[in-house]
Amino acid sequence: MAAQEGLIVPILVGPESKIRAAAEAAHISLSNYEIVPAPYSHAAAAQAVALAREGKVDALMKGSLHTDELMSAVVDHEHGLRTDRRMSHVYVMDAPSYKWPLLITDAALNIAPSLTDKFYICQNAIYLAHDLGLVEPKVALLAATETVNENMPATIDAAALCKMAERGQINGGILDGPLAFDNAISFEAAKIKGIVSAVAGQADILVVPCIEAGNMLAKELDYLAAAESAGIVLGARVPIILTSRADNTCSRVVSAALAILTLAGEKARLAAKNATAIG
Which of 30, 55, 120, 175 could be disulfide-bonded to 86 (CB atoms 3.0-4.6 Å)? Predict the structure, then answer.
C-alpha cells in the first residue's frame, strides 16, 4: 500500500521462496519489485544493512524477523549503521482523547537508559518533532512524581536533563520534569497540584524512564484509548522502521511516511550544519 501511494520503492530482502509465498497468499504481484535473496533471517538483516551502508536504500523496515536480529546487524561496530548519536525509538501516537499527536520515547530500544542515553533520546525526539512541523516541541520528562526524590533515579535524571536544556546541551525544545503522566497531559491535574510549567498539560513529547514504562504506556494507548500509532528508530545512518507483528496496515504505512520526513529533516540539518561550519 505504501508503494501504491507513491511513498516508497520497496526492495524485499530475505528467502525468496518465503517472500513469494507470502505475496501469493496476500494476492500481491511482485513483478515491479526487486527481491534480494538471503538464505535466512540473520543473513537478510546483514544484507539489508549492507544495502544501507552502500547508499542503495534510504531506510530499513523490519519484516518477519525478530527485532534483535535486525538491530544486531544495525549496531555492529564494523559493518553496522552507527553514528555519533545514540539510537532511540519514537512512537507517534494519535489518541482521540488528546489534543494533538503525542511522541513517546523510548519504548522499544533502550532498556534502562542512562542520563547520556536520555540526552540522545530527548534530542532525537525533538528532531522528529521538528520534522513533523513543531517549531519548539514541549518535552515532558516522566516519573512517578513531579518532585525530585533521591530514591527515584528517574526524577534526578529529569532534573539534570532540564538543566542541560537550560545550558544549551539539548536544543530545539522546551523541557520540564520530573512530571507524572497526569501532570504532563492534563492542565487540570497540574493546576490542582500547583505546578507552574510551560509543558504541563500540553506536552508534545513524553520521555519515559525505562522501556517497560514506555512499552506499557504505548500499548495502553493503543488498546484502551483506541490510539493509532507509528514508530521509527532514529540516530542511525538511515531511519529504521521497527514494525510489530500486531501492527495494522495504517501503522506500517504511516511509519514509512515518518521515514521520509526524517530523511528530509536530516538532510536539512546537515546542510545547516555545513553552512555554519563554512561560515
Answer: 120
Rounded Cα distance between 241 and 59, Å, is 8
Both 13 and 136 in one domain: the answer is no
Segment 206-253, tens digit of pLDDT: 999 999 999 999 999 999 999 999 999 999 999 999 987 778 889 999
Q: What is the pLDDT of residues 7-28, one digit of tens each?
A: 999 999 999 999 999 999 999 9
List Cβ neighbours of 55 (8 Å cut-off, separation of 6 or more). none
Q: Where are the alpha helices (DSSP H) in 75-210?
A: 115-131, 153-166, 181-185, 187-192
Regarding whether 47 and 164 lie in a shared domain, the answer is no
Taking alpha carbons only, the member of 248, 242, 213, 206 closest to residue 228 is 248
Burial of 76 (C-beta count, 10 Å sphere; 0-12/13-18/19+) = middle
Which grid cell sits at 221? 494507548
DSSP 223-238: HHS--EEEEEEESSSS
**Would you tell me how many other CB atoms lie within 10 Å of the CB of residue 233?**
28
Q: Which domain holds residue 271?
A: 84-278
- Beta-strand relationship, 228-234 and 138-142: unpaired
